[in-house]
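User: Quick sanity check before I run a bigger batch. Here is a single chain. Can you write out its predicted 3D structure?
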Amino acid sequence: MFNLFRSTVNIAHGYLKTVVKPGGVAVDATVGNGSDTLFLAGLVGLNGRVYGFDIQPEAIRRTTEAVIENGYSELVKLFEQGHENMGDFINEPVDAVVFNLGYLPGGDHNIVTAPETTLTGVIAGLNLLKPGGVMCIVMYTGHSGGPEEQERLESYLRHLDKKLYYVCKIDFLNRNKAPFLLVVEKASEVSMGGLK
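Assistant: Done. Predicted structure follows.
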């Protein structure tokens, strides 16, 4: 068994741990079954906040149950909304945003994230990120529309101002169609004229 590269999600969690601290604020843009929501809640602790979004009632139901079971009800706010609307519900800067794209595991595989709404959600998330904040996007391309979603996101992220953002891609070269990770780090020191 591998330790460092067990899974793409595991790698994303490693990056999130470096940024999200007790008392922090984080966003799970695609709550799914609640795994990332619970992970983020564990990082921010009882004095932090986690906002979660999903368009599927089943995802919100499963995640709500997991949140209650783990004692995080007071710090997690879930919205049955698409991630493209996160800016309408969050009025504070955040330390991290995580996306896990594709479909709900164990759910309807015909309901998938889409290029247009995902890109809008990523832009909204970048606008909410604090200086020094991180966005992790776990990208699956095996579903319908997956390659188009990848193309739209990578095209946009490739052209972000390099003085304001670092963008990297972590991919498994010897695993066919494995999910890969896009990580965006916002510059930690920004002045009116750019980086200090």
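The chain has one domain: 8-195.

User: Great, the batch can go ahead then.
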